[in-house]
Amino acid sequence: MSSPLLSIEYLNVTFKTSKGPLKANEGISLEIREGETLGLIGETGCGKTTLGKAILRLLSGNAKIEGKIVYRDTDLLSLPEKKMRLFRGKEIGIMFQNPSACLNPVLSTGRQIAEIYRYHEGVGKKEAEEKAGEMLELVGINSLRGHDYPHQFSGGMLQRVMVAIGLALRPGLLIADEPTKGLDTDTKVQIAELIDGLIRRENASMLLITHDLELAGSFVDRIAVMYAGEIVEVGKAAEVISNPKHPYTLDLLHSLPGKGFRTVSGQAPGLLSLPQGCRYHPRCSFRLEVCSQVHPALRGFCDEHLTRCFLSEMGRRKETAPRSSLTEQSAPSYVEEEA
Amino acid sequence: TDKETEGTAEGAESGEGSQDLVVGVGTDVNSWYLDMFASGDARFVWAQVYETLVRLDSDLNVIPGLAESWESSDDGKTWIFHLRENVTFHDGTPFNADSVVFSYSNQSYVRQAVLRPVQSVEALDDHTVQFVLAKPMPLPFYLTHVAWPVMGPSCLDAEGNFVKPVGTGPFEFESQAKDQEIVLTKNEAYWGEKPLLDKVTFKVIPEAATRVIALETGEVDMIIKVPEYDVARLEAEEGIRIHRKLTTFTDFLQFNCEKSPFDDTRVRQSVAYTIDTETLVNEVLEGIGEPAGGRAYSPVMMYSDPDLETYTPDLDKAKALLEEAGWKDADGDGIAEKDGEPLHVTLVVSKGVWAARHNPMAQVVQGALKEIGMDVEIQVLDDGAISKLESAGDFDMILRSGYFVWGPYPRHFFVHHSGNPYSHYNNETYDQLVDEADMTLDSQEQEELYHSLQVFVIDEVPAFYLVHEEKIVATGPAVNGYVISSEDPWLNLSGVYLERT
Amino acid sequence: MTDLIERTVRTEKAYLAEKRLSFGEFRKNRLAVSGILLITVLCVLALFAPNLAPHDPLAQRLDSRLLSPSLEYPFGTDELGRCIFSRVIYGTRISLGIGLLVVAVTSIAGTSLGLLSGYRGGMLDEAIMRGVDIVMAFPNIILALVIAGLMGPGFSSVVLALVFTQWPAYARLVRGQVLSLRKRAFVEAARALRPSSFYIMRKHILPNCMDPVIVLGTLEIAHVIIFASALSFLGLGIQPPVPEWGSMLKAGIPYLFTAPHLTFFPGLMIIFTVFAFNFAGDGLRERLGQPADQEVLAR
Amino acid sequence: MKLLKVEDLKKYYYSGLFKKEVHKAVDGVSFELERGETLGLVGKSGCGKSTLGRTVLRLLEPTSGRVLFEGQDISGFKGSALKNLGIRMQIIFQNSESCLNPRMKVYEAIAEPLRLHRLCERDEEKGRVQELIEAVSLSEELLFRYPRELSGGQLQRIAIARVLGMKPEFIVADEPTSMLDPLVQAQILSLLKSLQENYGISFLFISHDMEVVKWMSDEIAVMEEGKIIDFR
Amino acid sequence: MWKYIAKRLAMVSVVIAGVTLVAFSAMYLAPGDPAEVIALARYGDDLSASQIETLSDAEGLDAPVHMQYLIWMGHLLRLDFGKSLVTSEDVLTEILQKLPATAELAIVSLLVSLLIALPTGVLGALRKNTLLDSGCMFVSLVGVSVPNFWLGLLLIWLFALTLHLFPSFGYGGLEHFVLPALTLGSSMAAVTARLTRASLLEVLGQDYILAARARGFDERTVLFRHALKNALLPVITFAGMQFGYLLGGAVIVESIFSWPGIGKLLVDSIFARDFSMVQGCVLFIAVLFSLSSLVVDILYAVLDPRIRYDRSD
Ligand SMILES: Nc1ncnc2c1ncn2[C@@H]1O[C@H](COP(=O)(O)OP(=O)(O)OP(=O)(O)O)[C@@H](O)[C@H]1O
Ligand SMILES: Nc1ncnc2c1ncn2[C@@H]1O[C@H](COP(=O)(O)OP(=O)(O)OP(=O)(O)O)[C@@H](O)[C@H]1O
Ligand SMILES: [Mg+2]
Ligand SMILES: [Mg+2]
């Protein structure tokens, strides 16, 4: 495949919190190649959004970023803020996860899109508004509603406005943070195809953060799986989906609604109190002795497919394993005691 | 001196500089008509436009004005004024007896207030007017007051509404912009010594500090009512001249003699012995003014007793007097008591135009009286509040200035006359003396009476007189020929001319 | 890619970012701390004025008027020869007292009314806001005159007059904030819990609209102190010769150019007070439950 | 008696500063809900689902129509009756990311309804909050953070925990799991379901994921342009 | 909105009635017999009791207060503002003469204040916790602590006397506006600047600003197109109130700079118990004030579309 458009090396993101430093990303190394779509999946709160924001250096003030993020030969982390700006929007676009907070409540949605054209393409007000209207139509919103303000939009519509904004400039790299959440199936497919189509046409790349594994399966070239701040598995999409190497990925795939909502007991560790050894080991049904002591490294399994698991390293992997299913799971403890 | 003025006047005329004088005053003219008092600095403007029958020279000598001469009947109840001829008002109408009758008709507020004894004003012929009074009264002195001048009847329209000021003065009214400026122009037909100025503009600048700066920047040529504390600074400035003159105004501390503690003469005397009026002048008023030491009459006034024995501070005597009156500091807290009541008095000061002078003066008085164990509480109030306190008798002392002082005539003694609702002093002897003095025609007798009145005030202290005020005018480099006079209006512009460089 | 050692590469930039952050943090705390320190100093001045003042603040020495600062009179003497230093110290009691009391009462009252008005809306809003209009259009001086007439001069009448005239500013300011806050999603979410509207105002709206109130309050202190002295000329305020910064300033105006220390030191005290309360106010604002990362970006 | 009965409910939005524009977001919706039942609500984005949910709870004043809760028209409720209604009917908002007071820590956000309705003793509060946050599979360490220090999914679960703490009888769940990964989603959904089984909670369950809706619901209503066009 | 505006305009009369009523009764409550105080202002110190009585009769001052107020109101309804009790001048003429000077100064001062405050506040927020921010804060805090009378004289001294740049007093051309407007503007600017800063900081911390940055906008665009509008609410509120204050309360500055404005007229009239003049001034101030607060309220809705006044939800 082609050369890397973006390469992330040993990225660490630490948030300063009142209870100590919180490593939301730890030792992340990833590549996104030209024309490639990389899917990023993982447990909520594992640091996906943080990674996406870190690329554009949009993290809040209590974050400390270490490592290297190179975009087309430029180390983004060592750029002065002024230069960094040149990469945002035009080169690297981002669609945020929380549309209701990311749209300015006092500006009409149309204007918020038009603004982008006016600023970046220097077009006149009229033309910018037209283009904004087109963009809205593209995501399935009547262009007349461009006059409306965000609070007059439904959740899904806001989500689509975010998509329109992210696509407005046809960036070389798009970071899409759950772009299709909250959309009905038809719209979702339509939006996904729209994004995918644009990306492919422009030979752009995309980092697609999503919880929708089906979507990931059908639109993504490679998949990275995150757990508790680190990458636990990377590989070709088809490979990862059909042949997951990390127990977490496996559990994730098994929990899909179509497969009957099977869950894993336990919960992701708080990032302030990570378990020793492998971060997934308390929940892992393939747990080995070593897992609770040594932190596994991300290793090549076969070419292009890396995983952070001793099991795969040793090549000892059981095909199926007993898994707690819904019926087995007990109701949460508090339910038992009557108020 | 005549020659001198002529010489300089010629010089002024030949100079190319304009003769437009700009004067900074504190308040605007709110009224041009005689149904109201020309309050504030309006009198300075009136004095240029209007004239009185009788005038004062700069040393307060009575001289003819629009009346060339006057005489009274023996009983002093009838006064006949012979008017100047060939005088015209600014609008060309002739000045005659009718205009005098018009000006002192019942309509004029002065007839209702001060000239209440006047029963009728009649024109005997075109240039003779007769005033008939209910009781003898030295009318010419009263008629020197600039706020009660002669106006032309043509200042009213047919319906009796006031249209515009019509006077006989050296300048005529041209225009007025409310609270900004008043413009007067030279009256070419003036009967007396023709003004050398072509135009006088009065700029209204309420704040004294701004007025001073305006003079310094040259935006105005002349300012009145210069604060005492600016005098030294201005004097040092090149080109600026300070004109000072002792006036009839006297600051005094009026007592409420109708209630304790000041119903006791000894307490009042004790105050008089405590306050050092010389310090007041030197330390509060920058040495400007003359310490009064209790003297009611400014030395510039008629019948002011030059040999009057005034108070000199004597703390021991003051304390002794207080003690005699029963006030003694028994508990050692610095405040005297009588029957367990501490000696606590209020001193009312008006927040009005005099505040800048009176506030520090009041504080010095307060500080001084503390020495003899009198605890003074100062109340700075607006006139409404003061009038309320006065009518309720709810005060102990009031600091006042130049109350009822017009002209050289010692009318001021009415202040303590029991007939005056504001006097708060009730003494038959005093009332008798005042009435007699006012009605006596014989000047010898008058002088004696007034002298004894002054002694009476020193002895009985219905009020303690503090400072005879000096008025201050400052002129810029261009102004020449200005002579300040002792009494309202001290802004005589005759002989003033400009020489701008 | 065979051996990925978990090592961090610190870029220069990140290092800088860290440094900047800690500086900001330090500065923030330093401000709050110094604010509280300054306020303490003022309180000490007020409480221990008799012990701290070298002279009797009322004692006149007419032979030593308008002296420049010296060892004996650290701030010089005023137009009646009183020790300005002592007067300024004593003045703390009244000026600070009036300032604090008025600002406290008005900001609380104004804020409450503004909250009610903005949150409840409708007739109540209309009534309160028109009340605000009336009070603001109503000339303060008349009020001062009336209060002076009815209550006589003194501390409480000044406070009363100032409170009456100053509350509307807070009310209007808060109302504006509330109008837009009440439509925020989190307020709607809180409303879904069906608490009393008082609860929502207190818990959800108030903390989010305190910023302007704190700003206004901490700055108003200066206005209040100055305004209080303006009232003393109507027989309402503290009467001379009681030392009070505003009146001292005013009394010094005639000597603005010849003896500037008369106005300088009381003025300095007002500035000092404003600084003290502003620092503390800024600290309070940061404390008010604002997330730590108010900073915009990690640069 | 039906727990909830909605009769011809309408909600029109009026907008525009100077000229009036009307938007008929909910336009005559009627449905009924039994205790312990779940009504799934699906429909294209923008068809009025959230509006319906909020109007049913009277968080938006309906333009017309009635909502009967246990046979009582809730539009007349005031004071303590309304307050009581708050414990019984609740909503999990769709935009959970902006539904928490930015100046309240997570702990307070979860404890708020408990305190407000005195659902537990003061000294039990801490324990309850911990249970709740664990019930939604979150770690305790989040309790002392501000909302903006959390991820989208975490916020959403806190919004859920907040509502569950009140044990309401009826919950409008507006896409409660849209930001959750499948694993956590499964955990949360099964939690909801088990609660329903234990306590007979009724849900109006809005979602786009047909699988999820089918799994959760007894009946599914399909909405289009403000109207329910089909019950399945 | 039109309905709302109409309603508010109708409310103006309520405000007028309220303010004038309160002012009228307060004037009566103020110490001193009104007739006496008026007589003092009219005739000076030489007063006779009969004069006071005549005046009281002539002006109807002996009628009960509420009657007097009703009579005044009755005249007002016929648009008759009456004559000054002290100078007999027509109240309306006098006010209309003074109002322009006041309004002009108010507008210019407000502009000056905003011109100083907005950049200062914005800079302070953008460069938060830097030396520049501290500098802005220092200047603001000093600005707010300095009383108008002090600053006014200092400016006159500096610009009129020392530098000869501007006239020291008077009303007239643009040059006359500089010093008074600077005096008034700078003291108000301090609060506005701090408000702007605080409010902007709050906004800059919001996610939508982050999102705007993510679109690659430069600071200027982020600031002016995205943040400022949101942050302006308290600033507008405050500016509106200051405009009101300037209309009625700039007495000190008016008198320092000899500005023929309505503030001084009002205060002088109050001290002279010139009821009709006071009522006239108060009425005009109330109208202007109500209008300015209406404008502010409309601006709210324009700035923030979520704010609506005809609440149907
Ligand atoms: N500003 C912050 N301060 C402290 N902690 C933070 C901050 N932002 C995020 N976190 C924590 O960092 C972790 C990663 O957050 P992030 O938003 O990247 O998660 P995510 O993978 O996007 O999750 P989701 O799928 O729920 O959106 C979370 O545990 C969150 O609590
Ligand atoms: N406050 C409002 N003012 C005007 N129109 C509004 C308002 N809120 C929502 N709408 C409009 O009402 C319609 C229904 O919105 P609603 O939020 O109920 O949709 P929804 O079915 O929940 O959609 P989604 O699945 O996208 O969340 C939308 O077209 C929306 O634009
Ligand atoms: Mg996320
Ligand atoms: Mg919705």
From TrEMBL, chain A:
Name of this protein: Nickel import system ATP-binding protein NikD
PANTHER family, per database record: NICKEL ABC TRANSPORTER, ATP-BINDING PROTEIN, OLIGOPEPTIDE TRANSPORT ATP-BINDING PROTEIN APPD
Entry-linked Pfam families: ABC_tran, oligo_HPY
Localisation per UniProt entry: Cell membrane
Entry keyword set: ATP-binding, Cell membrane, Ion transport, Membrane, Nucleotide-binding, Translocase, Transport
Region annotated Disordered, chain positions: 320-339
Reaction(s) this enzyme catalyzes, per UniProt: Ni(2+)(out) + ATP + H2O = Ni(2+)(in) + ADP + phosphate + H(+)
Species whose genome carries this gene: Methanosarcina siciliae T4/M
GO MF annotation, one: ABC-type nickel transporter activity
Bilayer topology: Peripheral membrane protein
Keyword hit for Cell membrane: yes
Compositional bias of kind Polar residues: 322-332
UniProt cross-references to SUPFAM superfamilies, sorted A to Z: P-loop containing nucleoside triphosphate hydrolases
Self-association and partners: The complex is composed of two ATP-binding proteins (NikD and NikE), two transmembrane proteins (NikB and NikC) and a solute-binding protein (NikA).
InterPro entries listed in its UniProt record: AAA+_ATPase (IPR003593), ABC_Ni/Peptide_Import (IPR050388), ABC_transporter-like_ATP-bd (IPR003439), ABC_transporter-like_CS (IPR017871), Oligopep_ABC_C (IPR013563), P-loop_NTPase (IPR027417)
From TrEMBL, chain C:
InterPro entries: ABC_transport_permease (IPR053385), BP-dependent_transpt_permease (IPR050366), MetI-like (IPR000515), MetI-like_sf (IPR035906), Nickel_NikC (IPR014157), OppC_N (IPR025966)
CDD domains on file: TM_PBP2 (cd06261)
Coiled-coil annotated residue ranges, if any: none
Annotated compartments: Cell membrane
UniProt keywords, alphabetically: Cell membrane, Membrane, Transmembrane, Transmembrane helix, Transport
Pfam families in UniProt: BPD_transp_1, OppC_N
Regions crossing the membrane: 31-49, 94-116, 128-148, 154-174, 213-238, 258-280
GO molecular function: nickel cation transmembrane transporter activity
GO CC terms: plasma membrane
SUPFAM superfamilies: MetI-like
ABC transmembrane type-1 domain boundaries: 92-281
Membrane topology value: Multi-pass membrane protein
Sequence similarity: Belongs to the binding-protein-dependent transport system permease family. OppBC subfamily.
Protein name stated in the entry: Dipeptide transport system permease protein DppC
Native source species: Methanosarcina siciliae T4/M
TrEMBL record, chain D:
Keywords: ATP-binding, Nucleotide-binding, Transport
UniProt record, GO biological process: transmembrane transport
InterPro entries assigned: AAA+_ATPase (IPR003593), ABC_transp_ATP-bind (IPR050319), ABC_transporter-like_ATP-bd (IPR003439), ABC_transporter-like_CS (IPR017871), P-loop_NTPase (IPR027417)
Segments forming domain ABC transporter: 4-232
Lineage: superkingdom: Archaea
GO MF annotation: an example: ATP binding
Family: Belongs to the ABC transporter superfamily.
PANTHER family in UniProt: D,D-DIPEPTIDE TRANSPORT ATP-BINDING PROTEIN DDPF-RELATED, TRANSPORT ATP-BINDING PROTEIN
Protein's name according to its UniProt entry: Oligopeptide transport ATP-binding protein OppF
Organism: Methanosarcina siciliae T4/M
TrEMBL record, chain E:
Top-level taxon: Archaea
Keywords: Cell membrane, Ion transport, Membrane, Nickel, Transmembrane, Transmembrane helix, Transport
PROSITE patterns: ABC_TM1
GO cellular component, one term: plasma membrane
Molecular function GO labels: nickel cation transmembrane transporter activity
Subcellular location: Cell membrane
UniProt protein name: Dipeptide transport system permease protein DppB
